[in-house]
Amino acid sequence: MNEAAAWAEQQVAAVRDDPAxxxxxxERCYSGPFGQAPRxxxxxxxxxxxxxxxxxxxxxxxxxxxxxxxxxxxxxxxxGCEAVALTGGLAGPPSSRTAADWLAFALExxxxxxxxxxxxxxxxxxxxxxxxxxxxxxPERFFLNVVLCRVLYTHALVAAPRLSxxxxxxxxxxxxxxxxxxxxxxxxxxxxxPAQYPLDDEVGYYLAQEHGFARLVDFxxxxxxxxxxxxxxxxxxxxxxxxDCVRDGALTYAWRFEDRHVWDPPRSVVLPLxxxxxxxx
Length: 281
Prior knowledge:
The chain is an all-alpha fold and about 280 residues long. It folds into 2 domains: about 1-135, no CATH class; about 140-280, no CATH class. It has helices at about 5-15, 20-30, 45-55, 65-85, 95-105, 110-130, 130-135, 140-160, 160-165, 170-175, 185, 205-210, 210-220, 225-235, 270-275, and strands spanning about 245, 250. It has a two-stranded antiparallel ribbon with strand order 1-2. Helix 6 packs antiparallel against helix 8 (about 140-160) and helix 8 (about 140-160) crosses helix 14. The longest helix is centred in the middle third of the chain and has 22 residues, at about 140-160. The radius of gyration is 18 Å and the shape is globular. It starts with a helix and ends with a helix.
């Protein structure tokens, strides 16, 4: 293992059983190797919000949390730390494509580069730890799919505006920019998921509780584009395994295709209007 990768592993190991330490380590990554990275700090908003949500649910706790969530978080931290080490002068090269994407972001911090780095780590962890996902209960596995399609969609808002918003593509980069608060609309799950882990009700219960706007986002904007969204994401992130996470308009990460009815849109007079307003092109 090279110096940068070894240093990154040490940093992650030091906070493995310390959820608050994970948050502090993530925040340090956005300060760069020398504590001064003003162009990187605005991107910390989205990462911090998502990690704090994980902390509030308790999924990162060493004894009672989720092995899957802990593994995904570690991948993001390790890749980010490796990029910090490389920019700080430790020997490389990057140990993975995802670490290389974080290095590219560190050298040129743009919205598109951030999504490619962040979502690359997320997707790599999803694919690597599918066995851990299978051990989660049904409602948790359902929301793993929701999280994935939402983070992919926000990436597409910035990097593939026509795919994500059709003729309204001029608005897409603003809505998806991780430096702005608007991106929280697409990534916010706290109004759907209670602050507890694991979930203990049926999937249908949580669907019924879903916030109205979130339902419009999921079923009006994302679900009709699932196949094309995952194809585009697989190509952009260099992750062909993503294509095994969707099938015929249904999400299938740790989820049986035979149970695809959960992805059927609810009855609504608004959803058909959204589909006509934002047709697939």
